[in-house]
UniProtKB/TrEMBL annotation:
InterPro entries: AI-2E-like. The chain crosses the membrane at residues 20-38, 44-62, 74-96, 161-179, 220-237, 243-273, 314-347. This is AI-2E family transporter. It is found in: Cell membrane. Its main location: membrane. It comes from Streptomyces viridosporus T7A. Keywords: Cell membrane, Membrane, Transmembrane, Transmembrane helix, Transport.
Amino acid sequence: MSATLNSRRARAALRASARLSGELLLVLVMAAVVLWVVGWMWPVVWPLVVALLLTTLTWPLARFLRRRGVAPALAASVVTVLFLLVAAGTVALIAVPVASQSGELADGVVEGIRRLREWAAGPPLNIDDDQIAHAFDAATARIQDSAGSIANTAVTGVSTVFSGVVTAVLALFLMFFFLKDGPRFLPWLGRQLPGRLATDIPTVAARCWDSLGAFVRSQALVGLLDAVGVGLGLWLLDVPLVLPLAVLTFVAAFVPIVGALFAGFVAVLIALVSNGLTNALLVLAVIIVVQQLEGNVFQPIIQSRGLGLHAAVVLLAVTLGGSLAGIAGSFLAVPVAGLIAVIWNYVREQLSDPPQDPGAGVPDTGVGVPS
């Protein structure tokens, strides 16, 4: 009798495991299909994502104006114009000082090249001018032989820049419409859905909106810490163009991996051509320390608090996103992980708590709720 009972329990456990495995397989297949559709629609999805992130950044000001009685269209227009002015001012803070000191920087580049040649001519390298000329001729010949591939790369680069401009313009227009009409979206969505979905979907969407806002604010705080740390180090080392480099560091913090590398390269290059090799190495050490603190301490802690995720989850999400989709994957990994956590927490609440009244209102957030 005991053996028969144990056999029945084993078969029941096996059936339950098989059913669970089948359901998990269906979920994975559905996720793969969704990812394929997103990849196919990426030229539309990417501007939409950028516009949503920009909207979370600018919505507090738009909400403030709307609550003071400003019409939605006028509030959205004012916020969009202010955003463009801030973006233009940021570019000016970087470009104007650089242009005013371009002559000094050019002289520094020439002097740096001269010092490099003098260093290469001495021990231990002992490279004379004839060897340098020979290497230059060989590099020129290689470039001439690779003219076709270089042209293709240039065309690809121009296409990428053009695509980026189109994405930016489209995201800007979408941001304006989100600021203007966003609060009407969730009530409209709730009216289109049947039964409990009329409450569940708008509630989850509102929580996801809060999660995106937390991500943008935390990323801005991380960029500010980077800018302060790098700017202070450059000021102490007497590197020119401290303010433009600090602004560039803040802006670059919103672009994972490549942004930090680009900002650091520019800072080291300016230190090299202005103050010499030793100063450039010190600047490089400062940037490495700041980036290590930002990537391994500040960013995981700040984003984990803002999104309700553990710091280890943030690190793993960035690593996985970068391996799956490169730079865009690294940029979107943390907010996507935050959205998944929001959805999972809501599902867990609904499974453990009694269902809410379908007539309950949607939480007060920036999207989908009348101001």
